[in-house]
Protein: Arginine repressor
Amino acid sequence: MSKQTKSQRLSVIADLLRTHEVTDQAMLLELLRGRNISITQGTLSTYLSELGATKGVRPGSFKSCYQLPLMPQADAVTTQPTGLISPTVGFRSYAISGQMLVIRTEPGFAQSIATILDSSLSSLSLGSVAGYDTIIVALAEEATDGEVIDWLHQIIPESILAIGR
Structure:
C-alpha cells in the first residue's frame, strides 16, 4: 500500500463521508482499504474528530450515519431539524426517576438526539451521556417531572413523544 500524507487521508475520508452512507467506523475502514489506505480504528476516530464528523440522520433514509459539518448539498446529513427529517424520529421512550431522565432511541440515534438536548441549553439539564441507543440526562435538583416533560415536548414533536412514555 502506498503511503499517503495525513492531509490526503483526511481528504479521502471526507470524500467517502460525502458520497456514502457510512453507518459505523468498521464500514469506513473497509472503504478506506478499498482506496489502499490502512489505518487503525483509533487513528480513524481521531481523524473523524478532527474533521468534525458527527452521526446524524440522512433525510429520507432514517439511517444514522457520519456527516461533516456545513455540507450544503441538498442530500446532506443533518443533526438539526430541517423540515425534511428530524433526528428525533429515532426517539422511542423516556422515563424520569428522581433527577435522572433516561431516553431510549432507535439504534444509532442517541448521539444526535443528545446533541439536540444539550444544545437547547435548558436550565433543567446538567448534561447528558449518550450511548448507541440510550441517553441519560442528569436533571437539575429543582427540575420537576412536569417541567422536564414540557422541555421534551419543545424538542421532540408531540406525535412522537406521545407514543414514547
DSSP finds six helices and six strands in the chain. The longest strand covers residues 91-97. The CA atoms of residues 153 and 161 lie 7 Å apart.
